[in-house]
Amino acid sequence: MAAIENFATRPAFGELAAPQAPTYRTPPHNIEAEQALLGAILVNNDAYDRVSDFLKPAHFSEELHRRIYEVTSQLIRAGKVATPITLKTFLGEHDLGGMTVPQYLARLAAEATSVINAEDYGRTIHDLAVRRELIMIGEDIVNGAYDAPVDARPRDQIEEAERKLYSVAETGRYDGGFQRFSDALTAAVDMAAKAWEREGRLSGVATGLTDLDQKMGGLQASDLIIVAGRPGMGKTALATNIAFNIAKAYEFKVNPDGSHDTINGGIVGFFSLEMSCEQLATRIIAEQAAVPSYKIRRGDITEHEFHSVSQAARDMQSIPFYIDQTGGISIAQLVARARRLKRQRGLDLLVVDYLQLLSGSKSKGDNRVQELTEITTGLKALAKELAVPVIALSQLSRQVESRDDKRPQLSDLRESGSIEQDADVVIFVFREEYYIKNKQPREGTDEFIAWQSEMERAHGKAEVIIGKQRHGPTGTVELAFEAEFTRFGNLAREDQLPERM
């Protein structure tokens, strides 16, 4: 308040006080800019519209200025006029060094600058507030490092600091708002041109599964894609197949500034919350080498199979596939790590296996539905921020098992409707063979013969049911599934086979 008292006692705006040696470093602020902006708004309420979308009361350094801006905002949004006369009854008493609040408001209005400069003053106030927040975060980091408990891990402090810094970066932007439709048209045409140039003519990242790509146009940037299924259906296998196909197909070009632009495939980040890195690597090697993973784990493989495994491992050495096996992490930690990967290595696809193993913030308490809502909202926001597709695996409720037709539906998504609401695409993995196999009757009976014919019909096939897609049609895609290697592939169809002689 001392700065306001100085303002109240000095003869006019703009006069500089005699320089004094500061005894301590004061946080960056600009009282004159705050006064000039508030005065401009009080004289012409239209000035408020120029700053209201990015400037908040908390950005002002003086408490009285915060209160004036807050009350002014409330009056203008209510369709009323904000002037020194209408404001004075809402501000109470303040010690302004011999000047009353009505006098202070009148002086703000009397010495206001042009409304033309309002946005520039608002940006100055906003930027200084961001710098003050950075100073506070820096102090917290220093104090936390000095006073850390014995069991505290530096990694946790680093992630918390990253979370706070990215929060400031996200809230500290004022470049949003309306854009010309012509700019949006240019972006849409650019996307179509890239799709035309890309292998497979897809607007998104190709999964390597042809029929699925044709139905979805590839995985679209900024989309949250939910892959759901009951245990044993192969949802993790589908996610690892897609992730590996994309990483294996990665091609890039080097820009003049040394940065890389992805041409085909992509860099993949995989959060494996359920399996360890070794288990996931074993599964992918089994898929690529066509050797059952249980045989690899037991060492029960032939010399030929060992060479296949070794060759597959060598081929995978150079692919851009990054795994985080930390279990039980929070959505905030996941977001921080994904941002770090994007910054340090690049990122074109993020996979989370699986949704229900993530935790939300502690403030949500024991309400799991609210917690899951926070998680899905956070993943969708992350997909938009990083401009990459995010695949999140999800469990389904047991009500599927009680139906005769066990094909999943959107209503089967477990614990929260927010999964369906926040997702751009919802995919269900369904293998009829799994359920038929569990109904095997006694051999030698008529039922057994009918069961065998059913097994032959369903053997080696899987259905990927697109239950929701914002940008395209829903429907079912049939894929080949090799259960021994947990591998999905393109299903050979009669119309795609070569002509018989």
Keywords:
501 residues, alpha/beta, DNAb Helicase, Chain A, Rossmann fold, 2 domains, nine-stranded mixed sheet, two-stranded antiparallel sheet, 11 strands, 46% helix, elongated
Strand content: 5-15%
Helix proportion range:
40-55%
- Order of helix and strand elements from N to C terminus: HHHHHHHHHHEHEEEHHHEHEHEHEHHEEE
- CATH homology-level superfamily of the largest domain: P-loop containing nucleotide triphosphate hydrolases
Furnish the topology, listing elements before pairings:
Elements: H1 2-9, H2 31-43, H3 46-49, H4 63-77, H5 84-87, H6 101-110, H7 118-146, H8 154-171, H9 181-197, H10 210-216, E1 224-229, H11 235-248, E2 251-254, E3 260-264, E4 268-272, H12 277-289, H13 293-298, H14 303-316, E5 321-324, H15 331-344, E6 349-353, H16 368-386, E7 390-395, H17 418-422, E8 425-430, H18 432-437, H19 446-458, E9 461-469, E10 475-482, E11 487-490
Parallel strand pairs: 1-7, 1-8, 4-5, 4-6, 6-7
Antiparallel strand pairs: 2-3, 8-9, 9-10, 10-11
Helix pairs in contact: 2-4, 2-6, 2-7, 7-8, 8-15, 11-12, 12-14, 15-16
Structural account:
Helix content is 46%, strand content 12%. The protein has 19 helices and eleven strands. The mean pLDDT is 77. Helix 16 links the parallel strand 6 and strand 7. The longest helix is centred in the first third of the chain and has 29 residues. With 501 residues, it is α/β, with parallel strands linked by helices. The strands form two sheets. A nine-stranded mixed sheet has the order 5-4-6-7-1-8-9-10-11, sandwiched between helices. The protein folds into two domains: 170 residues, DNAb Helicase, Chain A (Orthogonal Bundle), CATH 1.10.860; 233 residues, Rossmann fold. The protein starts with a helix and ends in an 11-residue tail after the last strand.
